[in-house]
């Protein structure tokens, strides 16, 4: 199955540790969404926003990887699954259930996400915008 990562799961080493079968395919953009950070965990989330994009990594994952991600993402309590189509192929990602106010991420978490942006060769201007664009 295809999985779209936009937060800490962009970090290739961490993703491989969490999901041993995962394979990074390429970077893609999710259109009409924006990146934000929220909840008591100060974690990444996406929300609909016209004419905005969220850069991320497209991964191939196995069924057992999906189960591990479900546990990590605290599905279905903290995150729910969101599906979209990318060139006719169904892609799964997670989005927070409760859309709480913006919470600046912890330094540790932000460093993991930044490392992931490097791993996937994503443009950090979108990450930087999410940190100031509450």
Q: How would you characterize this protein structure?
A:
The protein is globular, with a radius of gyration of 14 Å. Strands 2-3-1-5-4 form a five-stranded mixed β-sheet. It has a single domain, classed as Hypothetical upf0131 protein ytfp. The chain is an alpha+beta fold and 134 residues long. The chain has helices spanning 12-18, 63-72, 107-119, 125-132; strands at residues 2-5, 23-38, 43-60, 79-86, 89-96.
- Main beta sheet, described? 5 strands, mixed
Radius of gyration (CA) equals 14 Å
Average of pLDDT: 97
Unreliable residue stretches: none
CATH topology: Hypothetical upf0131 protein ytfp
The total beta strand count reads 5
CATH architecture assignment: Roll
Structural class: alpha+beta
CATH class: Alpha Beta
Order of helices and strands: EHEEHEEHH
Q: What count of helical segments does DSSP give?
A: 4
Gross geometry: globular
Overall tally of domains: 1
Span between termini: 32 Å
What topology, given as strand order, has the largest sheet? 2-3-1-5-4
What helical percentage do the residues reach?
A: 25-40%
Beta-strand portion reads 35-45%
For this structure, what is the CATH homologous superfamily?
Gamma-glutamyl cyclotransferase-like
Brief synopsis:
The protein has 134 residues and is of the alpha+beta class.
List the helices and strands and how they pair.
Layout: E1 2-5, H1 12-18, E2 23-38, E3 43-60, H2 63-72, E4 79-86, E5 89-96, H3 107-119, H4 125-132
Parallel strand pairs: 1-5
Antiparallel strand pairs: 1-3, 2-3, 4-5
């Amino acid at each position: 199955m295809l999985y779209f990562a936009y937060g800490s799961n962009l970090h290739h080493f961490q993703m491989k540790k969490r999901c041993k079968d995962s394979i990074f395919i390429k970077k893609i953009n999710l259109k009409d969404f924006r990146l934000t950070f929220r909840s008591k965990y100060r974690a990444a989330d996406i929300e609909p926003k016209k004419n905005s994009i969220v850069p991320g990594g497209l991964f191939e994952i196995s069924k057992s990887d999906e189960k591990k991600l479900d546990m990590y993402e605290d599905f279905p309590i903290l995150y729910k699954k969101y599906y979209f189509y990318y060139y006719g192929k169904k892609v799964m990602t997670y989005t927070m259930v409760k859309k709480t106010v913006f919470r600046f991420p912890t330094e540790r978490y932000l460093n993991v996400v930044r490392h992931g942006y490097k791993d996937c060769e994503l443009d950090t201007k979108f990450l930087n915008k999410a940190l100031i664009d509450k």
